[in-house]
Amino acid sequence: MSLFQFRRPRPASGEPPDAAIESAAPRRWGRWVLAVLVVAGLHLSAMRWIEHNRQPANAPPETPPVQVELLTPEPIAPPAPTPPAPPKPAAPPKPAASPKPAAPAPKPSPAPVSSAATPEPDAPAAASAPAQMPQAQAPSPASQTAPQPSAASGDKFSVPPTGDLRYDTLVNGMMNQTGTIHWSNDGQHYEMIVSIPLPFVGPYVYSSKGHIDGFGIAPEQYSEQRGRRAADIAIFNRETKQIVYTKTPQSQPLADGAQDRFSVVMQLASLVRGAPDKYKPGVTRQFSVADNDSNEIWPIETVGDETVEARGGFTTARHFTRLPRKEGDRRKLDIWLAPSIGWLPVRILQTEPNGMQIELLWAGKLAAPPAAAQDVTSGTQAASDESAPAMPSTPAADKP
């Protein structure tokens, strides 16, 4: 064998030459497939970019965002003064009755005239002058056109009349026992007791009582009892302008118009009853609300009118939602007030941070409010004269 004879080197792996050539072919096909996929991906991305950036020539303008109006607590407007009744016109004076002619007296014999008895010339005229009748003075034009004082600016307010309200309670959409809201209002003081039964835990009872002042509902004491635990109480001290708690030693300042977690529902209902047209979508009102251990600002926004299905059927209600109180706030509160039941809450939904939902859904009244219920109203009486009519319901709505 020549020293210069060429010899094909064997593969290092020890495979025969034909096997090495066959294993390289699939690798070449893999590269081609990968290249085709990359090119196809680039073409697809380019098409999506072109489609996304292609806009019609006369695209309609985007709907502008809702203008948010922020409302803060204001004093209640005093009732409009009743204009005084116009003065009655004075009756015309009656003509004096003419005296009946007297019988002619016999003429006395003439007496000798004495100079001492000569009468004064004015005496007979004064005696014979008719008596003058006093005339009533007509009201002056200035008194007729004097402007009446107008009511001061402020929130129009109408506290709902006394009544016991009944609600179906649902936990995560599952029907539970019936809950109640006892509400009493005598025009000067109020009391609110909310009872929500929960299985295996016991009832949740929330109580609020106080008076009605220049800012509306003014709680004096709020308590909440969850199941068998002792009640936690918050006391609104109006003299020291402080809120003190039994759950914690700290105290916080008491703001004008401050509410608790449940009186704020009736405060909102009273404001809407007083001026329903004021609360349009986007209007946000701030409330200072105390819990059992703290006090914070609740921004409650008007969402709009929606249809709510309750036990008695369908009704239109105005939806209010509490906006996040701070960054990361996942606890939600939604309230629906229905004009068909005097702007009382027809639905209340609270969503906990863990996703659990507790819902109160209107189920009719346990007792209708009395006809002569006291109503605290400012501005106009039209909204408060309604005695919270019951929502139209079927006979089954009265069953527990």
UniProtKB/TrEMBL annotation:
Residues 75-111 have a biased composition (Pro residues). InterPro entries: DUF3108. Pfam families: DUF3108 (PF11306). Residues 72-164, 371-400 are annotated as: Disordered. Residues 375-384 have a biased composition (Polar residues). Residues 112-153 have a biased composition (Low complexity). This is Uncharacterized protein.
